[in-house]
Amino acid sequence: MKKLINEPEGVLNDALVGFAAANPDLVVNLEDRYISRGPTAGKVALVSGGGSGHEPLHGGFVGYGMLDAACPGEVFTSPVPDQMLAATKAVDGGAGVLHVVKNYTGDVLNFQMAAELAGDDGLQVESVLVNDDVAVENSTYTAGRRGTGGTVFVEKIAGAAAERGADLAATAAVAREVNDRSRSFGIALSANVIPATGKPGFELGDTEIELGVGIHGEPGRARGQVSTARELAGVALDAIHSDMPLSGDVLVMVNGLGGTPLIELYVVYAAVSEWLEGHGATITRNLVGNYITSLEMAGCSITVARMTPELTELWDAPVQTPALRWGR
Amino acid sequence: MDTSAFQAWVHEASLLITEHASRLTDLDAAIGDGDHGINLRRGFQAADEMIEKSESETDTPGAVLRTVGRALISKTGGASGPIYGTGFRQAGKALGDVTDVDAVLLGSALEAAFNGIQQLGAAHLGDKTLLDALGPAVTAYQVAVEDGGDIVAATRAAADAAERGLAETIPMLARKGRASYLGERTIGHEDPGAASTALIMRALATVAAGEAS
Fold this sequence. Notes:
heterodimer, A: 328 residues, alpha/beta, Rossmann fold, Hypothetical Protein Tm841, Chain: A,domain 3, 2 domains, 6-stranded mixed beta sheet, B: mainly alpha, Serine Threonine Protein Phosphatase 5, Tetratricopeptide repeat, 9 helices, globular
């Protein structure tokens, strides 16, 4: 294992210390393990969290117009209810707190417990589940569709709604609408290595790729062979399109999984644009870069959201976070 | 079993899990995300420490188990934290404030743990989860008690049944948690959660028999 770390068991703490030093305008609570801003009085607060190793998600999205707090767990391990409760209390501005939860068993159970504890303490908490990964076809016999790239859209757009004064129910409704309108599909070219184990999370042959991979390296629909970016973008978009027909205005993210250079992401984006244009959809907004990663996994995920003018306006609203900033 | 026996159970479970951490992690790497041993070791070591530190508050068997449950929820992370934490908390609640737990009451506590975990995770027997070790263990325990067995015999029967249950997870197809995404590729592997449950039940039998290290 070659990694720029000190000790494997100290990775998260060391990264948080670095994050704090790089972002003096944010609060990094090393004791309770959360990153926060505020609280902002009278505003609905958004709290998210999950295992680490997906940076900039979620800590990089704390700031004006997006999240109020993020709870990082150990690498690929859900955070614990105590962290979530501490973060929820720290950012509650009196208008309630929305938990944005990616659909993984650990995240769901821990956030559920945190919400119950917060409720016992008299806080108003709502939860929104993100499950945008179309690669999971058999939801009856699995833990269900995973939360992936759509999380970035949910956090940005619901964050903007909260900033504009939407109440808790309205903020949750926007978040659910964005999730319902978002679909993702990921492709892995190589495996990731969890620092604590030092071994690849899964095996891929020299010319093999995983079609429909999850953000921890969970398998998708099939093993495939390396192919052109154009063809692979087609595989991803076909999968998305057959689940949610794509037309009209769309927001698109071509997201690197951590080990793929930006130049390749632009090659993919060109193929995605061409495909969507050919199918009568119009990309009105886009993101190309590393937003929800999987350590050093090579590959990308493609997320498409069908937009309404209202959602586009919220997407355009000012945001000022370490990883996403415009208009302010 | 008195309070100190329950404290000894937690300590023994922590030792066994620490000893088997890399095996649990390897099992999890095969069909999950490869951190079960690491997480559970962190959780049980924290639980063991918390019990040592808060001796005045953990003065009944039920209080010991409830404290273990809280520690596991607070320190483990992942799905195992809430799942094992809930199991221990429900078992602790079932024990109430009794200071010396007899065989029948321990059976109710094990059953309460099973029910609490079943309800939280909504898993069924055969889904390739820890319930496939815990379920047979609870049944074997209760059968042993009905047949007139004492706590030593019943916990041994439970530990044996948990280990058999673990072996029976090998041909199963995972339908819960991160392993479920592997579908048929999970066939042929032991379930890591069933493996850790077998260790925890073995620790209970060892302590009940007075053979703890």
